[in-house]
């Protein structure tokens, strides 16, 4: 069976999903397919009244359903059914995901949808296994730490992995007993809307999952600043995360989880397997057209093997097949928009102006859609635009080192600390390196997450606050109170 399909075939519903129903709203933003630039749909912008309607619906559903106070296993069972329905509707979801986004149908159908279902099952099984504690006190007393849900969680997800990011936000919040109002990216909302519809079919009470469509300045601000939103969870750029923090500070105090930008280094030591390193590095930057917050875009390689690594990296770009995301044979993703591709070119040009040398790439691909060539820049220093700025595209920089200390100094970034990669055959060196690198995730002789959802993700410095995935994400959706009883 071929996965290729007609991009006009999915049902792109324009509206919000509130209290278990689709709410029609007039599209205000034209939407274009990254694969060919064609306009295909429109997105409404939820105003403050629409956001308030969704938040009130979430609060009412939480009270009426008893979702936060029921036996935790009841939440587990409903979430497991939801995961099953997501897998059953994988083809429909994959098509809704693929057309407006940079995600290829071969990856969404076999990867993103399955991973989302796995994530939901992971958090579903935590619901009746994570709880409070009995703590040591005097024998005449009983000390307890009791946990409970926050109430209504406000979530915002990015455009680069729409459905799996929705899973990151919805699954732990619901498993922990909360209701959610989620704003997906205005560029890629359709798979999230369908996912919400399936939650009701699975038996999750209407109103616990609400989706409002819109942009950041209007819809996002109304959501994060709403007085009845008890917690905020956001994945996106550091700039947008800073704006959310400021908005929350203006309108009140509430906890937040922020998974933000990155400029992740990959250190290749002299004893590394060059072929392995080249394979991991190329996949990390070519996957999804380099549009991932953990993209390992800064290569730091020992001078003795730099030439061999550059040659191997260039070879990895041969044979890539750019094309429509809805064609099964396509292997290389477009950039999300013309605006973003223009931004990438501007940053590359600025780096060249700073003295960088283009080893390969450095320009858009001459074809329909918003494609950009895999690019490697050398002769860069720590002040270069290409080192300082998150490019969010298939652009790598390469710097060389002689000593381990020099490598760690180059790896350190003044702004970001999301992830890092290390390549060496010496595990002693690798383990010693862990303390020298400020990053929330470090991969050794590999680059990228596995499907072990127990491992949390989150950054240091301006790459974020708190964690997604793992027990930490579940715990971040519950608050604790201390109880002391005199017996």
UniProtKB/TrEMBL annotation:
InterPro entries to which the protein is assigned, alphabetical: Ald_DH/histidinol_DH, Ald_DH_C, Ald_DH_CS_CYS, Ald_DH_CS_GLU, Ald_DH_N, Aldehyde_DH_dom
Residue span, Aldehyde dehydrogenase domain: 27-483
SUPFAM superfamilies reported for this sequence: ALDH-like
This protein's record includes keyword tRNA-binding: no
Range of residues in the leader sequence: none
GO molecular function, one term: oxidoreductase activity, acting on the aldehyde or oxo group of donors, NAD or NADP as acceptor
Record bears the keyword Oxidoreductase: yes
Active site: 259
Keyword annotations: Oxidoreductase
PANTHER family associated with the record: ALDEHYDE DEHYDROGENASE-RELATED
Family of the protein in this entry: Belongs to the aldehyde dehydrogenase family.
Protein name, per record: Aldehyde dehydrogenase
Source organism of this protein record: Roseibium aggregatum (strain ATCC 25650 / DSM 13394 / JCM 20685 / NBRC 16684 / NCIMB 2208 / IAM 12614 / B1)
Organism phylogeny: Bacteria, Pseudomonadati, Pseudomonadota, Alphaproteobacteria, Hyphomicrobiales
């Amino acid at each position: 069976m071929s996965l290729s399909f007609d991009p006009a075939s999915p049902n792109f519903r324009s509206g919000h999903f509130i209290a278990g129903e689709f709410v029609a709203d007039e599209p205000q933003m034209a939407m274009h397919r990254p694969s060919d630039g064609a306009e295909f749909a429109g997105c409404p912008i939820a105003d403050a009244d629409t956001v308030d309607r969704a938040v009130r619906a979430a609060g009412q559903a939480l009270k009426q359903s008893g979702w936060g106070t029921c036996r935790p296993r009841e939440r587990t069972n409903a979430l497991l059914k939801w995961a099953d329905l997501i897998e059953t509707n994988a083809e429909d979801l994959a098509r809704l995901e693929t057309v407006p986004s940079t995600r290829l149908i071969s990856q969404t159908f076999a990867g993103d949808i399955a991973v989302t279902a796995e994530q939901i099952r992971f958090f579903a099984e935590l619901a009746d296994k994570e709880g409070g504690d009995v703590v040591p006190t005097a024998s005449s007393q009983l000390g307890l730490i009791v946990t409970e849900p926050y109430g209504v969680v406000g979530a915002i997800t990015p455009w680069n992995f729409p459905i799996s990011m929705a899973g990151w936000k919805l699954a732990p919040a619901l498993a922990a007993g909360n209701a959610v109002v989620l704003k997906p990216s205005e560029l890629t909302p359709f798979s999230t809307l369908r996912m919400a519809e399936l939650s009701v079919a699975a038996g999750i009470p209407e109103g616990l999952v609400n989706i409002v469509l819109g942009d950041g300045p209007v819809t996002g601000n109304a959501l994060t600043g709403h007085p009845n939103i008890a917690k905020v969870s956001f994945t996106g750029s550091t700039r947008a995360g800073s704006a959310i923090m400021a908005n929350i500070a203006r309108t009140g105090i509430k906890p937040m989880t922020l998974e933000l930008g990155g400029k992740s280094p990959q250190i290749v030591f002299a004893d590394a397997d060059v072929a392995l390193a080249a394979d991991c590095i190329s996949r990390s930057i070519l996957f999804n057209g380099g549009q991932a917050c953990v993209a390992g875009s800064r290569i730091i390689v020992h001078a003795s093997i730099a030439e061999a690594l550059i040659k191997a990296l260039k070879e990895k770009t041969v044979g890539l097949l750019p094309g429509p995301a809805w064609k099964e044979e396509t292997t290389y993703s477009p950039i999300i928009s013309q605006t973003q591709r223009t931004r990438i070119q501007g940053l590359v040009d600025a780096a060249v102006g700073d003295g960088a040398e283009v080893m390969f790439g450095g320009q858009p691909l001459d074809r329909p859609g918003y494609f950009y060539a895999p690019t490697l820049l050398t002769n860069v220093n720590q002040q270069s635009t290409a080192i300082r700025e998150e490019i969010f595209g298939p652009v790598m920089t390469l710097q060389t080192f002689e000593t381990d200390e020099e490598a760690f100094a180059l790896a350190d970034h003044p702004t970001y600390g999301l992830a890092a990669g290390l390549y060496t055959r010496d595990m002693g060196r690798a383990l010693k390196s862990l303390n020298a690198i400020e990053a929330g995730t470090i991969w050794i002789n590999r680059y990228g997450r596995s499907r072990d959802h127990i491992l949390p993700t989150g950054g240091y410095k301006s790459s974020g606050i708190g964690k997604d995935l793992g027990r930490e994400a579940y715990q971040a959706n519950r608050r604790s109170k201390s109880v002391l009883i005199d017996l």
